[in-house]
Specification:
The protein is mostly helical. Helices cover about 80% and strands about 0% of the residues. The longest helix is centred in the first third of the chain and has 28 residues.
């Protein structure tokens, strides 16, 4: 079967894909940093332990990992770290199976969307950033 996308176009698509996944973490990290007290309350309600360590660590991982994904620097490591973090956060905070009614439905949608992000991150971790990088 012939390839539908030429290598140059594929390279740009990979950069765009990395950048879009990175935006999820950059926006999340910025929101947590700017609205820190709200993030503290969110972490408490999610049962996240050691908030004084886990919240700053999350912010650094989201911002640093997102930047690495966009630039194509330490891409596989950043993608793997973000994937592991997202699995843990998704299970801890978005455990829809513990809820009922509308809350269960809403959390199950967030959970499912996060599975897609995790899949994209694992894809990047396994295959690398593609040819357009600063690394």
């Amino acid at each position: 079967m012939p390839k539908l996308i030429d290598p140059t176009t594929a390279a740009w698509i990979l950069l765009i894909a990395r950048s879009l996944i990175a935006l999820v973490f950059l926006v999340g990290g910025m929101h947590k940093a700017v609205w820190y007290q709200k993030a503290v309350a969110e972490f408490k309600s999610g049962g996240v332990p050691l908030i004084s360590i886990s919240l700053p660590g999350t912010i650094l991982l989201h911002l640093g990992g997102g930047i690495c994904l966009i630039l194509g620097v330490f891409t596989e490591l950043a993608a793997l770290a973000l994937a592991i973090h997202t699995v843990a956060a998704t299970c801890m905070v978005h455990g829809f199976w513990r809820l009922q009614g509308l809350d269960r439905l809403i959390r199950s949608r967030v959970f499912s969307a996060n599975l897609g992000v995790i899949g994209g991150l694992l894809y990047i971790a396994a295959l690398g950033p593609g040819p357009i990088t600063l690394g």
